[in-house]
Design goal:
258 residues; mainly alpha; single chain; globular
Length: 258
């Protein structure tokens, strides 16, 4: 193995993006097995895969002393592109396909209100928790609040505001916890809250926001509802990325100055 590794490393380094896809595929495959065997499908494979990714990024940072997680390892440098803004945004937008627009229009005012309420409530709950744990500056509070919205909104907001890597990591962790909670709790409460129609799924996605959590939770409830919940959850992510570094940040800064 030691004699084969230099040659294999050379091949992997020469094709970094292909290597990144292969590694992510292996992680997803492993997470799927763990989901089925350890949790009997109650915790979605995507949540386990995210946790594995965060752990690998942490261990990579310790071993290399870098700041880009596994992308600091030469043969895994393709992770920087695979996990970059371009492919991330493409994946978010892709979840909107498969939705019937006539069902989306039926949500009307309720759908729009669910988006606004869901985004702002998540931001300010997250910011309040951050304040309680000693983060008293507007940048950190807004970034962690963004993480409470989704683990995508947090880093996007933090990057725009110049937050530290520590704060952005906390925002990702907050978003991951929320995602896991949504995917686990949704099937248990779906009938109780009337989550049985496309319209209800659209509103639910707007309130919860975390696309992976909503999609996984709805998949365990009724697979036909997944595109509708993912549709508004996608809008939620976009709205959060728009409002976080602007309206929410300025509002929090004003409140702190009072």
């Amino acid at each position: 193995m030691t004699t084969l590794w230099p040659t294999l490393e050379l091949v992997l380094t020469k094709h970094p993006l292909v290597t990144a896809f292969a590694v992510v595929g292996f992680i997803m495959w492993s997470a799927s097995i763990l989901s089925k065997r350890l949790t009997r499908g109650r915790m979605h494979a995507s949540a386990i895969a995210i946790a594995i990714g965060l752990l690998l990024a942490y261990l990579s940072g310790l071993s290399t002393g870098g700041t880009k997680g596994v992308a600091d390892i030469e043969w895994l440098s393709g992770m920087g592109l695979l996990g970059g803004a371009m492919l991330r945004d493409f994946a978010i937008v892709a979840t909107a396909f498969g939705v019937r627009l006539d069902e989306f229009r039926k949500t009307g005012l309720a759908g729009m209100l669910s988006l606004v309420i869901g985004v702002l409530l998540s931001f300010f709950v997250g910011a309040t928790v951050a304040y309680a744990f000693g983060y008293r500056d507007a940048v950190s509070m807004t970034t962690i609040g963004g993480g409470a919205a989704t683990y995508i909104v947090g880093p996007v907001t933090g990057s725009a505001l110049g937050a530290s890597s520590e704060v952005m990591a906390l925002s990702v962790a907050a978003g991951l916890v929320k995602s896991i909670l949504v995917m686990v709790v949704t099937p248990a409460v779906a009938r109780w809250i009337g989550l049985t129609t496309p319209r209800a799924a659209l509103i639910f996605g707007g309130l919860m926001g975390t696309t992976s959590g909503v999609a996984a939770g709805l998949a365990a409830t009724d697979e036909k509802l997944v595109p509708y919940g993912a549709m508004t959850a996608t809008f939620y992510t976009g709205l959060g990325c728009l409002l976080g570094p602007s309206l929410v940040f300025f509002t929090i800064r004003v409140l702190l100055s009072l």
